[in-house]
Design a protein that fits this description.
This is DUF3700 domain-containing protein. The chain is an alpha+beta fold. 17% of the residues lie in helices and 32% in strands. The radius of gyration is 18 Å and the shape is globular. The two termini are 33 Å apart.
Length: 276
């Protein structure tokens, strides 16, 4: 294992394949699995009556085995992140970075990258993943802006998954137009699974999967929120598939429900990551 905690994995376990497994093996380029103590799935994503999948325990192993050049990052009890740089879309590249125990996997392109570098005091060589990490750290360390504005300031096509090992906190988001394929689900044990490929999420979560909501972000402390309409609550929208079977819910901005906007007073030493 190198200094960033990265290791290349060649698993011998979980070699049993479902017949359809090979169909999505080459499509998966981004995968994350989080323990429910780190990222609790929102209401509606996993329902008792919804058919479960095979579970997430073998997904990371399968990803590492099936992807050429796959890299898997162990997050300890928090979960794992895996990615591959094979067959990248040059317009929507995948980037991975680690800074001060903050791990981030980013796919896409930021259009206003120059202005964000200036905003966060970054050098010319900083790329998209470094910008997201720095934006998160600024937010975490008593940044002056709410999380919704931090994400809204990112203009482009993107999806990112971030994990802060110092606080066991997650932060992930997708742009308002769904410019990058991004799916999530909850396995039978409540683990949250995220990927750019719907089929691998289905494999682990069964019917408990859905596209990640456009224009939304998720944090460990506050759950799922809209960065486009930060003052409004999200409402759960029941969903059925083409066979009429109940699936995970989707989420829509509730025009009638407003959030409470009061910010609690905290001491100077408080960690603001619990308030974004």
């Amino acid at each position: 294992m190198d200094k960033d905690g990265l290791f290349r994995v060649k698993f011998n376990a979980c070699r049993t394949r479902s017949r359809e497994g090979g169909k999505f093996a080459e499509a998966v380029r981004m995968l994350a699995v989080f323990d429910p103590t780190v990222a609790k799935s929102p209401e509606g994503l996993r329902a008792p009556s919804v058919e479960g999948g095979e579970g997430s325990s073998c997904l990371v192993s399968y990803f590492a085995e099936s992807q050429a050049g796959a890299v898997v990052v162990s997050l300890g009890t928090g979960g794992a992140i895996g990615y591959s740089k094979q067959n990248q879309n040059p317009l929507l590249p995948r980037l991975f970075g680690v800074v001060d125990n903050v791990f981030c996997l980013f796919q896409g392109h930021i259009e206003n990258i120059t202005s964000l570098k200036q905003q966060y005091g970054l050098g010319k060589t900083a790329n998209e993943v470094i910008i997201v990490i720095e934006a998160y750290k600024t937010l975490r360390d008593r940044g002056p802006f709410p999380a919704s504005q931090v994400v809204r300031d990112i203009i482009g096509r993107f999806a990112f998954i971030l994990y802060d090992s110092s606080s066991n906190s997650t932060f992930f988001a997708a742009d308002a137009d769904g410019g990058v394929p991004f799916f999530w689900g909850a396995d039978p044990e409540g683990h949250l699974v995220l990927s750019d490929d719907a089929d691998i999420v289905k494999k682990g979560c069964g019917k408990s999967f859905a596209p990640f909501p456009k224009g939304c972000f998720f944090t460990t402390s506050k759950g799922l929120q809209s960065f486009e309409h930060p003052l409004n609550e999200l409402k759960v929208m029941p969903r059925v598939d083409s066979q009429g079977q109940v699936c995970s819910a989707t989420y829509k901005v509730d025009d009638q429900a407003k959030k409470e906007t009061g910010m609690p007073r905290v001491g100077s030493a408080a960690n603001w990551s619990s308030h974004y």
